[in-house]
Amino acid sequence: MFVLGLTGSIGMGKSTTAAMFREAGVPVHDSDAAVHALYRGAAAPLVEAAFPGTLQNGEIDRARLAARVIHDAAALKRLEAIVHPLVRAGRAEFVAKARADGADLVVLDIPLLYETGCESEVDAVLLVTAPEEVQKSRIAARPGMTGAKLAAIIAKQMPDTEKRRRADIILDTSSGHAAVAQHVQDLIAAIRTGRVKSRDHA
């Protein structure tokens, strides 16, 4: 089974690309969705213990939590120490189940793939990217996005130029929905016919 890592900075089209893999029948593990589920489940009491007052109606209030960690690097590290191991464990379970179910390809959608050292979990990394002006226009259209919030997100992310240098496959999402969808279909076919090699076996 081939494990493809999908990553990209904010506003680069990662969620749209992940949806295209899903539509093609490829199992996709969404790290962001996993975190949201953890905030309603296993992580909730742990986060509340570390950040009292963030648990509301049985789940972590993400706005309250963000306010506590967004400008506090030490607090963010405490939060990541709670959440990241749980997300990794969930990803490992997802991959194991997909393998047991006979899947030949899975996608792990990991926003901070390089930043959290997750290259070792995947056979190859697909980076979605776009020109800076396209990225900025997409971000500006997001509801609730503020300058402070964007600055905090970007501060956590590796520069796109460095991600391009490291990635095995690069997909420019500014070429339009149809072109990106075709690229995804071509990539799935290339992986399934052995034309994309695992970096461990290249």
TrEMBL record:
GO terms for cellular component: cytoplasm
PROSITE patterns: DPCK
EC number: 2.7.1.24
InterPro entries, per database record: Depp_CoAkinase, P-loop_NTPase
Keywords: ATP-binding, Coenzyme A biosynthesis, Cytoplasm, Kinase, Nucleotide-binding, Transferase
Species: Methylovirgula ligni
NCBIfam families: dephospho-CoA kinase (TIGR00152)
Domain of life: Bacteria
Full protein name: Dephospho-CoA kinase
GO biological process: coenzyme A biosynthetic process
Membership in a protein family: Belongs to the CoaE family.
Gene name linked to the record: coaE
Nucleotide-binding in keyword set: yes
Residues reported in the UniProt entry to bind ATP: G11, M12, G13, K14, S15, T16
HAMAP family, alphabetized: Dephospho_CoA_kinase
Top-tier EC class: transferase
Catalysed reaction equations from the record: 3'-dephospho-CoA + ATP = ADP + CoA + H(+)
Entry-linked Pfam families: CoaE
Functional note: Catalyzes the phosphorylation of the 3'-hydroxyl group of dephosphocoenzyme A to form coenzyme A.
